[in-house]
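New to this. Explain the following:
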Amino acid sequence: MKPKVLVTREVFDDVLEYLSKHFEVISNQSDQPMDAETLASKLSDKQGAMITLSERIDATLLSRCPNLKAVCNIAVGYNNIDIEACNKAGVMATNTPGVLDDTTGDFTWTLILATTRRLTEAEAYLRAGQWDGWKLKQFLGLDVHHATLGIFGLGRIGQVVAHRATGFEMKVIYHDVRRAVSEIEEACRASFVSKEELLSQADIVTIHVPYSSATHHLIGKAELKQMKSTAILINASRGGVVDDVALIETLRSGTIAGAGLDVFENEPKFNPEFLGLKNVVLAPHIASSSKATRHKMAMLAAENLVAALTTGKPPNLLNPL
């Protein structure tokens, strides 16, 4: 008898076909989000689950799922999974690192260029029928070329972003909890600086750190005040790394020039006050959303699940038990 697994959100058909070779699969191709009660009910008799950031795996849920052996996230970040609770319950947890680095790095540059050149603001102006001709000082933006790029977190995605900066002949500085090895610094043409130096020197500040209690509100009111008035802030990492209330106040007052955001606190219920600001570019958590990359993420999560329930050794295990 095949083990039972749950796929909590819509995935590609061939991913389901692959899983069905190994498991009895209960899928959610209607893509209806599940609340905590529904998720616990559907997982109560399952041995495995392929989940997304929308589903919270915690001690309360695990206590109702005695047969559960593995939860496999379709994401690199895993702040939706209580790893300690998984350890206590003997549940393996996995993620999907590596396959989305380039795509997320590309989208970071989408946010950088759209924000510095005020693209969404200009497009809204055009669509509203307000354009009445060329003007010398219309939608004056900020130059990216030869500017200083400040990167918080020189991990895989941060390095991709740094490499892309070469084409714009930028000065790249970074800050991280640990300094990168010299080979990485040289490849990225990046210089290590303090947090304070990065904030005060960078024309563009971009964040690429995981969310945790240590990075909660890494960028808050005090940090935003340290930035140049002409600077922009980019966040394509995780909501909660930036204090959204403080950022809204900062953007409204003009303390910094603008922001480009793909993630928010309490998403998808983000702060509606962002919508009233012209100097912010907003996206609904789509930095990894190319067809090829999202397919790779889903298939890697499926491979993790198969390995977890057949060998006990998934390739991207977060919590060796």
In short: The chain has a mean pLDDT of 97.
